[in-house]
């Protein structure tokens, strides 16, 4: 008998609520205030540094850069990454066996899950989480087990440090079952801006050793830390044996559209990530791998890492001055380029009409909608990074991305002053 509905989608893509990026981007496009000041999605408002751009342009003139790269990545890029990261890992990384190149960090993580999960295997994810983790885990049949992180109790009344968000190690331990195969950690963290402390990482890492759990450490913001930064892979040989560290050329070189990422780990882990990656997309974009390699080779000479961190911290501090002016508390980031601001003091007009797809969401969606339509500033509602049962933890917060031109940050200030009359 023929199928009654040939277009019935697979469960993994069916019935997904409209994702936050579409809601916010559509609202931004429809806002009466144009052009919108878009501090929502974490893409850069400016170009990669000139030496990296030049490398990309020149790569297109090389015959071999327009053809397939080896599935595990271009040898030049693997070598450049191994050289750049060996000092941070405290040992010589083998570029052939311990580094694999992927199509952005995102596909790298999908490959890791594809490489290790069987149907029904569990993966522990801390909330809030980068939303892609969930579908990446579920596609190979994995089950996500959530452990919430908590903002400081004072977070609604005073500015606190992003480091004050707590990870409940006991709750993590309680979430471990015989089916737990992997845990995902993210430091510096999106959206909190927390840099996990050495003690927190050690506690998580030791439990993973005890239970033989693979650690996927998402460190895509690893050059943007404003307090000491620890890599979990470096804490002990036993933890290192279980750890895959994730990186992103897009985040490091302001080129999120290039889709160049990588995983670093010991051979017994990396070989299966590469095997999955080969089947998912065969190999990744050649000219931009070449340009990323040159970016790494020349970064120190341009003092790029120092400058990039200094520049981002400057943007962060300049932007956050508006919250001090308005008297709205925020969670002062320890790393990355996102800031969470607490809007509990903002009273939305009672008779304000929200469209149904916003009205049915938690308060942060309404706050985000209001800011877009009334003030012309786009931010992201962070309940999207929580499960529905824990969404209440962040329904008064909004996430702003500061990786934008200074002029845009200045315009954001002017517009956000319009919030004054709603603050109580
Ligand atoms: C925490 C985190 N991990 C991974 C990614 C994805 O990185 P890529 O663009 O290299 O796939 C992002 C992008 O926003 C992110 O915030």
Automatic annotation (TrEMBL):
- What is this protein called in UniProt? Kynurenine-oxoglutarate transaminase 1 mitochondrial
**Record-level GO cellular component terms:** mitochondrion
- Indicate whether Transferase appears among the record's keywords: yes
Query: Which species expresses this protein natively?
Result: Eremomyces bilateralis CBS 781.70
The record's keywords, sorted A to Z, are: Aminotransferase, Pyridoxal phosphate, Transferase
Q: Which InterPro entries does this UniProt record tie to the protein?
A: Aminotransferase_I/II_large, Kynurenine-oxoglutarate_AT, PyrdxlP-dep_Trfase, PyrdxlP-dep_Trfase_major, PyrdxlP-dep_Trfase_small
The record ties this protein, via Pfam families, to:
Aminotran_1_2
Q: Which CDD domains match?
A: AAT_like
- Per its record, what are the GO molecular function terms? kynurenine-oxoglutarate transaminase activity; pyridoxal phosphate binding
**Cofactor(s) required for function per UniProt:** pyridoxal 5'-phosphate
User: Where in the numbering of this chain does the Aminotransferase class I/classII large domain appear?
Assistant: 36-416
| Similarity section | Belongs to the class-I pyridoxal-phosphate-dependent aminotransferase family.
């Amino acid at each position: 008998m023929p199928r009654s509905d040939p277009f019935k989608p697979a469960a993994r893509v069916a019935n997904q609520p409209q994702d936050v990026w579409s809601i916010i981007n559509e609202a931004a496009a429809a806002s009466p205030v144009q052009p919108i000041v878009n501090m929502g999605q974490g893409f850069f408002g400016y170009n990669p540094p000139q030496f990296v751009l030049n490398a990309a342009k020149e790569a297109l003139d090389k015959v071999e850069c327009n053809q397939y790269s080896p599935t595990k990545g271009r040898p030049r890029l693997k070598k450049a990454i191994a050289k750049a990261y060996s000092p941070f890992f405290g040992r010589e990384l083998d570029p052939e066996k311990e580094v694999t190149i992927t199509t952005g960090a995102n596909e790298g993580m999908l490959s890791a899950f594809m490489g290790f999960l069987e149907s029904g295997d569990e993966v522990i994810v801390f909330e809030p989480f980068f939303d892609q983790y969930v579908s990446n885990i579920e596609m190979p049949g994995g089950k996500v087990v959530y452990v919430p992180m908590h903002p400081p109790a004072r977070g609604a009344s005073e500015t606190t440090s992003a480091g004050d968000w707590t990870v409940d190690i006991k709750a993590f331990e309680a979430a471990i079952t015989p089916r737990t195969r992997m845990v995902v950690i993210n430091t510096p963290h999106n959206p909190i801006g927390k840099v996990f402390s050495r003690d927190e990482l050690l506690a998580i890492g030791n439990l993973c050793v005890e239970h033989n759990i693979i650690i996927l450490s998402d460190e895509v913001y690893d050059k943007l830390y404003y307090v000491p930064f620890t890599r979990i892979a470096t804490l002990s040989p036993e933890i290192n044996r279980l750890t895959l560290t994730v990186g992103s050329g897009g985040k490091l070189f302001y080129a999120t559209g290039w889709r160049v990422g990588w995983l670093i780990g010991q051979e017994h882990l990396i070989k299966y990530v590469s095997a999955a990656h080969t089947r998912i997309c065969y190999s990744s974009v050649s000219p931009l791998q070449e340009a990323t390699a040159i970016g790494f080779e020349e970064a120190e000479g341009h003092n790029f890492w120092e400058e990039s961190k200094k520049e981002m911290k400057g943007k962060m501090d300049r932007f956050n001055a508006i919250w001090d002016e308005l008297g709205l508390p925020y969670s002062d980031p320890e790393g990355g380029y996102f800031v969470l601001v607490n809007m509990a003091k903002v009273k939305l007009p009672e008779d304000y009409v929200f469209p149904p797809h916003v009205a049915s969401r938690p308060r942060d969606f309404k706050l985000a909608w209001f800011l877009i339509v009334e003030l012309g500033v786009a931010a992201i509602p962070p309940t999207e990074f929580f499960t529905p049962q824990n969404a209440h933890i962040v329904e008064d917060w909004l996430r702003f991305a500061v990786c934008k031109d200074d002029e845009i940050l200045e315009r954001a200030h002017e517009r956000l002053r319009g919030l004054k009359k709603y603050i109580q």
